[in-house]
Amino acid sequence: MVAYLGANYAGLQRNPGQITVESVLFEAVGKAGGVAECNSDSFEKVHWQSCARTDKGVSAAGNVIGLKIIESPDLKSKINAALPQDIRVLDIRPVGKRFNPKNRCSSRYYTYLLPTYLFAPSKIHQGDKTAPFVFDPEAINAVLKYFEGSHNFHNFTSKSGPKEFNNPSANRYIMSAKCSKPILYDGQEWTKITLLGQSFVLYQIRKMVGLTICIVRDGANPRIILSCFEKPKKPLPTAPALGLFLNRCNFDDFNKFNDNQLDWKSNEQEMENFIDNVIAPSIVQKDKDHNVFNGWKEIIETYPLDYEYLYSTVESQDKQESKLDQLEIGEEEELTKYKPTNPPPTSTPVPPPTSTPPPTLDQPQQD
């Protein structure tokens, strides 16, 4: 059970010639005596399997790696001593010989961290009126509610994903979608959108967040979301990759039939500390250095989404695809694409509430 900051790595999975989380972690396990020397040259020999693959730059507060390991009382501390500070082993739990974390995972919990000013009313919604913006998480929750349940997310993936309406792999089940109360990081107001689902298609979360932002800031009818689950193709805005990280993987079904529980109850505080002290500061600093979120907002304002257009035909949407393709980029590209022009707007700060523990396996986050 591991936490890591993805900023310094070319993704989770091993990739010859690249420094990845798995390659660094496997080397540390070998140095700590967690695998026999004869097996330390091969992931396959120790049956190494990861639960949730994270791409380049994407972090995780609670991912799971399965492997054959040589147990010892102080193995966790030995592995962590051989690791850089941006990768931490949270715990080591025994499981069955045939355990595959990817196949046994019952749900995945993702968090998207973003500045609250993105929800400030746009010119379309506010017109010439000028009033201080006060962030209201309940307004966002009212929109996010439309994503919950089983839906066809064929419009919420990339060109390489299940774009066709009749593709069964486009059907996904969202258990919970919530927006947190405001949090202050480096003097700026931020919020967290948390999504709990069985699994997600490529870019799904970023498109869900992007569409939610546009609906709130433009004062649009949130029922537009329901139309995006229907057959007509619609290009949707893709929020920056920067704010997204894996919060944890859940194993509810596995825990029902095994005495050795694979849960996060004893690791909650350590995970929360890793988010607050490692992952969040990295996101905030990168946004400050590269103007990622404000730059994305400027693109949205340059090509404002007309929500009547979201109901348009495939033929008419082709004219807009080239514009909206600018929003579907990876983190490495977005750090160089957005050039600071205007400083980001500010909102009326709200003192951060008393923090509550993140959700357990049996209790999704309630705000």
Automatic annotation (TrEMBL):
Pfam families: PseudoU_synth_1. One of its GO terms (molecular function) is pseudouridine synthase activity. It is found in: Nucleus. Residues 145-252 form the Pseudouridine synthase I TruA alpha/beta domain. GO terms for biological process: mRNA processing; mRNA pseudouridine synthesis; tRNA pseudouridine synthesis. It comes from the Eukaryota. Its main location: nucleus. GO terms for cellular component: nucleus. Residues 319-367 are annotated as: Disordered. Belongs to the tRNA pseudouridine synthase TruA family. This is Pseudouridine synthase I TruA alpha/beta domain-containing protein. It comes from Arcella intermedia.
